[in-house]
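Recall the central idea of this unit: under ordinary conditions, the amino acid sequence of a chain determines the structure it adopts. In this exercise we apply that idea directly, starting from the sequence alone.
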Amino acid sequence: DKEDNEHFEHLYAQPTEAETAVWNQVSAVLEEAHGILAELQSYNGAGQEIREAIQNPNDLQLQEKAWNAVCPLVAKLKRFYEFSLRLENALRSLLEALTSPPYAPMQHLEREQALAKQFAEILHFTLSFDELKMTNPAIQNDFSYYRRTISRNRLNNQQLEAENEVNNEMANRMSLFYAEATPMLKTLSNATTKFVSENKTLPIEDTTDCLSTMACVCRVMLETPEYRCRFTNTDTMLFCMRVMVGVIILYDHVHPVGAFAKTSKIDMKGCIKVLKEQPSNSVEGLLNALRYTTRHLNDDSTSKQIRALLQ
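Accordingly, the structure predicted from this sequence is:
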């Protein structure tokens, strides 16, 4: 993004080395993100081959066919999982940069717009990835077939060529990752929670204010007609909605009382209403993310109104 780079240069006449380092690190991760989404989008799975192999257990040719179909898919799943670890590191670097003293969160977001935009892009990627994963049952099917085949062959002492692809410990971690409804979001919210608990000297508000400010910016952009008419394409709308939902979920995981309480700095009613004004096919995944991946929605402190909105 040449324009982004110019924008970045323009923001800091002399960007400090630390800022440039973070920007470059995150930039590399975001560049890879497009490819990851494209691969996930075209992930069709080996359902057919697996079914035939299971129905004809004595037909060795079909067993081999299924195995050969599944192996490259598992290599992809391993790449996605390894990418989630890099994404986690990128998020940590951004959180450090956007919460470091002496500035208040709002000042950070204004001073470091290039970094704030990257933070938004990470959230956009995360929710896009999880929406695709949620609607693709082949992923867990393929992976569990792969694991069953390996353990069966271990019993029969057959070594498979692709054995070195994914060792047992890696396979366990991948299983946990793909068992999540929204694996990338879970990775990010764990990372944010961990960031807050490791930085004892940093007031937790600095992190949550950074998140609630971003949620507010997105909500205002979505509900104000003057802004809305500037969104030339639906992609910008979607980007804004995904970022808003992403920061709400992170806020809800990190903040002691969460995003839904009366004292929350996020106007949840406003945010949900904005989403519900959109065509349902474009927001159903986002509403589900709010329903199923937040922490405090079902707390007693959540108002009945908000719960009714998400029914």
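Confidence is low (pLDDT under 50) at residues 1-14.
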